[in-house]
Amino acid sequence: MSGTRERDARADGAAGAGVPAEQALLLGELKAYEGRAAAEAGQGKDPVNEPMIRHWCEALGDTNPAYTGPEAIAPPTMLQAWTMGGLSGHSARSAAYEELFALLDGAGFTSVVATDCEQEYLRPLRPGDAITFDAVIESVSGQKTTKLGTGHFVTTRMDVQSNGEPAGTHRFRILKYAPARREPKPEQKQKQKSKGQRPRPVINRDNAGFWAGVDRHQLLIQRCTACRTLRFPWLPGCNACGSDQWDTVEASGEGTVYSYVVMHHPPFPAFDPPYAVGLVELAEGVRMISNVVGVAPDEVRIGMPVRAEFRQVDAELVLPVFRPTTAVSDALSGAGRTADVGSATEAGGVA
Amino acid sequence: MKDPRPGDVLPPLEIPVTRTLIVAGALASRDYQDVHHDAELAKEKGSPDIFMNILTTNGLVGRYVTDHFGPAAVLRNVKIRLGAPNYPGDTMVLTGAVAEVEGATARIDVVGTNGIGKHVTGTVTVSLPEGADA
To answer: Number of Cβ pairs closer than 8 Å across A and B?
Structure first.
């Protein structure tokens, strides 16, 4: 649709330097309406009357006694209400005003919102007063971008008479605009993005060999070539002798639960609490952290024999996890050390 | 009531913004724009719900000032600018302070704040008959 393209072109122009030709052309057309009548010889559909005053006061909770009784005046702020067309429309609306709105609609600025109202009250209005009015288009702004969208402000001034005498003026500003597209709220975006993605391990040159092994379904332990000490997790140097020379041995995968915690809270995306995080002592003597699976979290016990297996978590990620090797009830008697959050967290791992 | 002096603060007025107030205010002001009574059409136009029309806000600002100064006070001028819309379920708190006094005429600055921000900022000019103690 050419209408859409024109609107986009104008919006782009507003952000950059200069005003595109199309936009300038439209503004020229809009400006031509300044000073022209918006309404001519308008007549209030009803004279000022008690029922409408009462409905207004009820709606707004206004209990001012000045608005009731034989000496009642109308609430001054009702000034515009007496000039409204209602469901049957504005018969007094000028052709110029209709054209201006059609021009704005045609340019894509189809929505309308009132932004400013300035009223001056010259005399009180009383039941029975006949209302007449005239209005002029005071100004049409250049294209403005607001939170609601991009559009033009149109300001009109209306002079209101009661029984032919000036009763008040009413300056009104509206924004005719193209609604801005509504972005999803940040928390909704967050929800969509985080669904199901298990955190990635941080792989660097010091531990890349371990993760390469996991991809091949091998559990590799570092071994110092100087003093033969095994170490895990992977580090650049030996804790025992300081040597930076090392090779690897493949773990058998056998181990026992040295300690564990059961995570209930807080929940993290891709994790489904409660779940058990074990500190597993491998048969070779080093310890590592991972999930203990294939057993209810509250049935994991210290001393429980486990074996490593490799779980394809998603298309890109394989993780080593541990599964009990004996019937759960057999392990219950082996409970010795107290489960300790500290021991599990300080080691850092893949859980 | 004592003569107002610049700096005098008006007690706040809490307006629960109910769906009923929005619709009743729109109809009492003969404003049948769908965004003030039809939630579905309001959403089609990019608004999360119906919202209060400017005439109702204008009336509430006037009421706030005459509630305070009494029935003898005469509104001369009400000038308002709208900001954050008044949606159903919100509460608008009107606050005001006397900005200027000249003879028997006072200019009051009014702000209406809702849960989103400033719904309305405005000034009201009101005449107070001499010696009209409430």
So the answer is: 108
Which residues of chain A make contact with B55, given a CB cutoff of 8 A?
77, 80-81, 117
Query: Nearest residue of A to residue B21 by CA position?
Result: A59
Give pLDDT, residue A254. 94
Q: What is the pLDDT of residue A146?
A: 86
Q: What is the pLDDT of residues B12-24, one digit of tens each?
A: 999 999 999 999 9
The span from the CA of B45 to the CA of B39, in Å, is 10
Q: Please say whether the beta carbons of A309 and A249 come within 8 A.
A: no
Kindly identify which residue of chain A lies nearest to residue B24, measuring between CA atoms: A59
Residues A329 and A264 reside in one and the same domain: yes
- Using the 3D structure, point to which of A250, A265, A288 is the last residue of a domain: A250
Q: How confident is the model at residue A181 (pLDDT cuts 50, 70, 90)?
A: low
Query: Residue A242 is part of which domain span?
Result: 201-250
Number of domains within chain A? 3
d(Cα B84, Cα B112) in Å, to the nearest integer?
Answer: 10
φ/ψ of residue A127, rounded to 5: -50, 135
Whether chain A has a CB inside 8 Å of the CB on B76: the answer is yes
ipTM of the complex: 0.95
Domain extent, residue B33, equals 9-127
pLDDT of the residue at A303? 94
Query: In angstroms, rounded to a whole number, what is the distance separating the alpha carbons of residues A344 and A341?
Result: 5
